[in-house]
Write a structure and sequence with these properties.
- The protein has about 160 residues and is α/β, with parallel strands linked by helices.
- The chain has one domain.
- The chain contains seven helices and seven strands; from the N terminus they run H-H-E-E-H-E-E-H-H-H-E-H-E-E.
- The radius of gyration is 15 Å and the shape is globular.
Amino acid sequence: MTFKKAVQAEPPPVNGAYCTGIRALENRHKGLVTCEDPRRLTGSIYLDSALARHPGHANDPRWDYGLGYRPAAGGREQAVWIEVHSATTKEVSAVLAKLQWLRDWLEDGAGRLKQMTDRADPDIRFVWIASSNVKIPRNSPQARRLSQSVIQGPRKRLSLP
């Protein structure tokens, strides 16, 4: 199944959130994601925006974006999830809460996207991109919490092969 079909198979309003390439990303975030061959970025959704007015998710700590990605080595499309967020020690708990929300959402109601996520390389599956400078000391308790999670980052950008 393609990323586009997986998104369109989800319940409203997510099923109408698909965009080609990285068009779903806000303009200020588009430069944070690159790919050696942009044609391998098969689509995107602005998940946070799609669910912001949904009664069941309006107050949830929603994740920002989902991307469809076809690896350079071939194979089936994957889903990659990106959160653009300030990267300070006080924000680690907020991003981890967003990750837990995303994993629950994928598990409970987005099975096709979860399958595509499970196919993704763990190094790009859940990525935190810093919206400004990273201010999380390496030996801090927050850095340890991050290292024990599945989040990659925070990093300045995501460069896909």
